[in-house]
């Protein structure tokens, strides 16, 4: 497989790196402290084309491949993993699904503003009693003439408050199991749709995570995506691509922490020489660089396979499983290399370590990725 980056890929990398260094880096510690993402930054991400990278230009997107998307995700997450997840949900969980499975009307009405970043999307699958066990949906959608009536609660929803358009998974025919699940496009402001509490998180603190409540929410039939009963397949198929995005986020977090550690190790002196001259530190740096490179290969491979139109379920799960473990390990070592300075906010690596943990949990925990990989191996 060819991992050489084309001129276009290198241009995307440079644009994302410039945005991350010049715009995201300056306020990243404050945003983490205050648990707020700056709307002006969000607008700039949209203006630069980072919110709908893989959407066809016909619908206002960048028309780029998945490899371009993961390259941008890596650069942005190197500096600000909160920006990474906001971007990832909009690109891979909302825009991609709408482009693949939405009707022309749905695309014109919802995809076009989402692709430009003028409007932000949320993907609402998880519930208090349906996380890994995603088919156990308690949210219901009852058909009633020309509309559905939605009732239920979703939790852990990224962009829960900042989004205007939500893709909401619900059971229409619980007796049919996963084949009775559908997904609906629901707009904020619809009567009965309430944004609940905001989570106070360990990491990715500048991205907003909320509970969403639906009480007799009226959704027109034309807002259902796909054929009746297609909702679970929609969610799983969307998550396959989402997992590549989160793998790239994890890769970025690891690479960001590594770059800081490499620099710090050459500046910090103990026993009369830079700590980079102690073999113990050199070995840490070697292991970090090697694991990051291996993670990058898996992430690029998954993206390439998706771009080639081949089945990428296993490749995506492997990339996420491995890259998230690498992110957790590398960021822990990065704090160690920084000593006491690594334990305080100013040096950034403690944030990277806190941010890394979520990549082993969301979009399918590491245990679920292993289950997905094993099922593919044993097919
Ligand atoms: N791709 C395509 N189809 C898939 C699939 C995949 N990765 N995984 C399952 N399916 C299909 C199966 O083929 C099956 O279809 P058929 O009946 O037609 O054969 C159907 O879905 C049901 O599959 P299973 O029988 O395997 O279902 P299960 O209940 O045993 O388990 C699971 C499935 C893989 C564990 C699934 O529930 C899962 O992925 N859970 C994790 C949920 C998750 O990732 N949530 C993320 C929420 S979004 C998020 O987290 C965003 C964020 O943080 C930013
Ligand atoms: P559980 O499913 O209860 O799992 C608990 C533990 O048991 C885990 O270690 C798990 O791996 C393990 N486990 C469960 N089942 C098995 C099994 N069969 N075999 C082996 N081990 C198993 N969801 C959305 O829909 N949209 C979002 O935008 C979103 N954003 C999120 C943002 C954040 C910050 C967080 C924390 C979560 C987000 N989620 C979102 C939810 C996330 O996807 C779930 O938290 C995740 O899928 C795990 O579900 P759970 O928390 O219910 O854990």
TrEMBL record:
<dbReference type="InterPro" id="IPR009075">
    <property type="entry name" value="AcylCo_DH/oxidase_C"/>
</dbReference>
<dbReference type="InterPro" id="IPR006091">
    <property type="entry name" value="Acyl-CoA_Oxase/DH_mid-dom"/>
</dbReference>
<keyword id="KW-0285">Flavoprotein</keyword>
<keyword id="KW-0274">FAD</keyword>
<dbReference type="InterPro" id="IPR009100">
    <property type="entry name" value="AcylCoA_DH/oxidase_NM_dom_sf"/>
</dbReference>
<feature type="domain" description="Acyl-CoA oxidase/dehydrogenase middle">
    <location>
        <begin position="122"/>
        <end position="217"/>
    </location>
</feature>
<dbReference type="Pfam" id="PF00441">
    <property type="entry name" value="Acyl-CoA_dh_1"/>
</dbReference>
<feature type="domain" description="Acyl-CoA dehydrogenase/oxidase C-terminal">
    <location>
        <begin position="231"/>
        <end position="378"/>
    </location>
</feature>
<dbReference type="GO" id="GO:0003995">
    <property type="term" value="F:acyl-CoA dehydrogenase activity"/>
</dbReference>
<dbReference type="Pfam" id="PF02771">
    <property type="entry name" value="Acyl-CoA_dh_N"/>
</dbReference>
<feature type="domain" description="Acyl-CoA dehydrogenase/oxidase N-terminal">
    <location>
        <begin position="6"/>
        <end position="117"/>
    </location>
</feature>
<dbReference type="InterPro" id="IPR006089">
    <property type="entry name" value="Acyl-CoA_DH_CS"/>
</dbReference>
<dbReference type="InterPro" id="IPR036250">
    <property type="entry name" value="AcylCo_DH-like_C"/>
</dbReference>
<dbReference type="InterPro" id="IPR037069">
    <property type="entry name" value="AcylCoA_DH/ox_N_sf"/>
</dbReference>
<dbReference type="InterPro" id="IPR046373">
    <property type="entry name" value="Acyl-CoA_Oxase/DH_mid-dom_sf"/>
</dbReference>
<protein>
    <recommendedName>
        <fullName>Cyclohex-1-ene-1-carbonyl-CoA dehydrogenase</fullName>
        <ecNumber>1.3.8.10</ecNumber>
    </recommendedName>
</protein>
<dbReference type="Pfam" id="PF02770">
    <property type="entry name" value="Acyl-CoA_dh_M"/>
</dbReference>
<keyword id="KW-0560">Oxidoreductase</keyword>
<comment type="similarity">
    <text>Belongs to the acyl-CoA dehydrogenase family.</text>
</comment>
<dbReference type="GO" id="GO:0050660">
    <property type="term" value="F:flavin adenine dinucleotide binding"/>
</dbReference>
<dbReference type="InterPro" id="IPR013786">
    <property type="entry name" value="AcylCoA_DH/ox_N"/>
</dbReference>
């Amino acid at each position: 497989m060819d991992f050489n980056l084309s001129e276009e890929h290198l241009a995307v990398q440079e644009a994302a790196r410039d945005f991350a260094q010049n715009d995201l880096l300056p306020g990243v510690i404050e945003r983490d402290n205050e648990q707020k993402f700056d709307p002006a930054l969000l607008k700039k991400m949209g203006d630069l084309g980072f919110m709908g990278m893989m959407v066809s230009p016909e619908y206002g997107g960048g028309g780029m491949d998945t490899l371009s998307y993961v390259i941008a995700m890596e650069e942005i997450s190197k500096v600000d993993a909160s920006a990474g997840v906001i971007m990832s949900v909009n690109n891979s969980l909302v825009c991609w699904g709408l482009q693949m499975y939405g009707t022309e009307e749905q695309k014109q009405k919802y995809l076009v503003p989402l692709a430009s970043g003028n409007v932000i999307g949320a993907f609402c699958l998880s519930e208090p009693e349906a996380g890994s066990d995603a088919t156990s949906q308690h949210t219901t959608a009852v058909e009633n003439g020309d509309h559905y009536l939605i009732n239920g609660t979703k939790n852990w929803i990224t962009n829960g408050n900042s989004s205007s358009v939500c893709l909401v998974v619900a059971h229409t025919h619980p007796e049919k199991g996963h084949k009775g699940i559908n997904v609906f496009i629901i707009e904020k402001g619809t009567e009965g749709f309430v944004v609940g509490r905001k989570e106070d998180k360990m990491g990715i603190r500048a991205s907003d995570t909320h509970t969403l409540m639906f009480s007799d929410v009226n959704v027109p039939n034309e807002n259902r995506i796909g054929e009746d009963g297609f909702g679970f397949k929609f969610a799983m198929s969307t998550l396959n691509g989402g997992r590549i995005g989160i793998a790239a986020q994890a890769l970025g977090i690891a690479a960001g922490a590594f770059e800081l550690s490499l620099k710090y190790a050459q500046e910090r002196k103990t026993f009369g020489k830079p700590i980079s001259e102690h073999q113990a530190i050199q070995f840490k740096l070697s292991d970090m660089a090697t694991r990051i490179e291996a993670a990058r290969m898996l992430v690029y491979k998954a993206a390439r396979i998706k771009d080639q139109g081949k089945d990428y379920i296993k490749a995506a799960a492997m990339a996420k499983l491995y890259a998230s473990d690498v992110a957790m390990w590398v960021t822990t070592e990065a704090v160690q290399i920084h000593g006491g300075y690594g334990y305080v906010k100013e040096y950034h690596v403690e944030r990277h370590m806190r941010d890394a943990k979520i990549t082993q949990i969301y979009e399918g925990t590491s245990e679920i990725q292993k289950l997905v990989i094993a099922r593919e191996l044993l097919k």
